[in-house]
Amino acid sequence: MLLLLSAGSMMAQSGTNSPYSQFALGALSEQSSGFNRGMNGVGIGFHEHAQINYLNPASYAELDSLTFLFDAGLAGQITNFKEGDVKKNANNADFEYVVGGFRLFRHLGLSFGILPYTNIGYSYAVTKQLDDADKTTSTNTYSGSGGLHQIYLGFGWSPFRNFSIGVNGSYLYGSYTRSAINSYSSSYVNTLSRQYSADVRSYKLDFGAQYMQKLSNTDFLTLGLTYSPGHSIGGKPTLLEITSNSQTSVSDTTTYPGAGQANLKLEIPTTFGVGLMYNHSNQLKVGLDYTLQKWADVDAPAVENNNGTVSYVMQSGQYKNRHKVTVGADYCPNAMGRHIYQRIHYRAGVSYATPYYYIYNGSGIREDGPKELSASLGFGIPIINTWNNRSTLNISAQWAHQSATGFISENTFRINIGLTFNERWFAKWKLN
What we know:
mainly beta
């Protein structure tokens, strides 16, 4: 409980330095736990007795009846940014998630926890020489921080053999602040500052289903489906515009939306997911996931300038649908083996994702945002001592590449560490 209460403040620290997090709701966060990350996030078709799989709440129905699971994870990363001949490095560390779960009743499992949803963190400036006699320079400075998080409670139920359904109900919260300042070296020219902010307090629902088909005595195939309805999350997005002049010390402040304007709101998209998982003798598991986020149906607040009249209004067409495909595998030679190397889970995965937003180049032409290609390798190492041989240390290394034509390219190397405490809580003791 202490970890859950403190996780919110720990997650308030930004886990990214990406300039791409300035767009839309920010960089979409990984919502998988330690064992998924070793397979690069695959999991819609997975159901584990000793791991919590938030990606599909139907999997909670398979949690071990004698077990209480508690999983916490963190990540550290190094990112290289490249634009033309300029290269920069940035380091980040972030507390990623805290989740727990156990079996409530026969065929009914429960899970709870806190996870990130989006992440915003960037700061950079662009300076240009203006074509005039006094060599005036123009500097645009951009910065932002914040993000959205979710606290969830979920249930998974198996109404009949080999089939389960589930739901996660989340409290979605968080805030962000973005600023764009246009200043000049000449004191005769006004400085324009725009500050964008929002504060979200809303909900999020995720539904899931899984069906397992027996192929032979040693081979099984599981189909997983997920659905999350899109809706307005409010947030009261606000634009504060400040025009000032250092010579006259006069400033003018305008707040949008102004009087008589409709209240603005943020939205999250409808999301569909489908996954397959092939299981051979509980030694080799191979998964394939596809996720579609319908961002193209989402409206968003934007600045509109009509003949010098500025307004902050809802607009459509700012986003595009996001597609993501992930393939991953988990191999364990012998989960009950006598040697430690036989009980280790060896994991790997790759994924490809399209962007969900557009960006504008220097000529004002709209381009697609950055595509993402990533890969991971990981291990699930059993913790064996005199009082517990069921807990697992999940360690994975991930490489991710983001790039968009004519813009910054990013290469990120990330280390994920997750510790799954697996305690035997619900056994009945018998005295002889």
